């Protein structure tokens, strides 16, 4: 495969766009750099790049594209939205419809607000939790990504009684002091943190199923313990379901796991590929938000008809029979293909999979928290990523990300992908 045009475009991009990309992971930082492929067109499970190369796509735009690219039903909704005007700045009936659909699917969303990104959704849930409890601090779990607002760009302190350090230049020490980070799947560490800070904690922010150091499920009882202990301490529980909502079932991870948070942040899939975020929760808590309450949140683009109509169309597709069963079957086939190839060629991999999402970790036996994921072999992943790309399989460029199957992938796509994995693993020693 030649990447000449991508190389040229990347050069040009760096002259006008900071770093050549509009989101840092696109610069292949997670795999040691290189030239990002410039995609030209996407349809179903496939990408075509500017050099004319063809790929099977498992990036799915980092999660939103669960129905495949340019799904006809969603495309039609976007076309109709364009005809009728994409932005009004007034309420529309479509927002009522969509909020109702979300609440029907995720009953804890007694009241909902639409925003424009996952970042905004999470940022606002924290503000609401602070407004409702009158407290300042939050607890989050190490390695979970919650967007790029100040409070969630804070790295772990060294123990339950220490607060975090800024994880980004421009995030102040005083903000980092408001955040306590504990390991995921560790109820004891969580309890210790609450014992120390309990009266100051406004909210506990958690990805109920982690998507940001690969796919990591909560251990039995962990989320129940988070809920019980947080509530005992008078703190709210906030689920960041930006990746998980509608990924594993028609509804949230909270439905799948049978645990209910006070507030939920949503994004990605619910926009059908257009920019969106949403947050919601118990009515009494949401009533803190303007115009009913004193916590402010607003948005020129919030609830715009294009994103809302695309979101409605996307959920309509996901509501069809057998969608999630099929995604699970494809996931099972892909996992088996990867495991068989790894066994055959003695490549040490661990695959974490839940339905149509999975992560391959190299050189580590089990991944149940961020430290495990960190200890997986990044060089092996980087090599694997680049070899897969050269053979026409587009993955997320980081050992911390997931492969996402879509309703557009076929068994044949997965069979071909497994064959390519086998080829890459069989050549491993020639690297
Ligand atoms: N929360 C989670 C769990 C995410 O994975 C992401 C994005 N990867 C965000 C929040 C931020 O969403 P956005 O990029 O739409 O701002």
Give the second-level CATH assignment, the architecture of the largest domain. Answer: 3-Layer(aba) Sandwich
Termini gap? 17 Å
Morphology = globular
Strand content: 15-25%
Subcellular location: Cytoplasm
Protein name: Glutamate-1-semialdehyde 2,1-aminomutase
Main location: cytoplasm
Keywords: Cytoplasm, Isomerase, Porphyrin biosynthesis, Pyridoxal phosphate
Question: What report would you give on this structure?
Answer:
- The longest helix has 22 residues, at 323-344.
- This protein starts with a helix and ends in a 5-residue tail after the last helix.
- It has a seven-stranded mixed β-sheet, with helices on both faces.
- The protein contains 14 helices and 16 strands.
- It is of the alpha/beta class.
- Helix 6 (187-197) runs parallel beside helix 7 and helix 11 (323-344) packs parallel to helix 14.
- The chain has two domains: 4-70 and 322-430, Aspartate Aminotransferase, domain 1; 72-318, Aspartate Aminotransferase, domain 2 (3-Layer(aba) Sandwich), CATH 3.40.640.
- Helices cover 37% and strands 16% of the residues.
- 4'-deoxy-4'-aminopyridoxal-5'-phosphate (PMP) binds at residues 62, 117-119, 122, 145-147, 207, 211-212, 240, 242-243, 267.
- Keywords: Cytoplasm, Isomerase, Porphyrin biosynthesis, Pyridoxal phosphate.
- Its cofactor is pyridoxal 5'-phosphate.
- One of its GO terms (biological process) is protoporphyrinogen IX biosynthetic process.
- Pfam families: Aminotran_3 (PF00202).
- Pathway: Porphyrin-containing compound metabolism; protoporphyrin-IX biosynthesis; 5-aminolevulinate from L-glutamyl-tRNA(Glu): step 2/2.
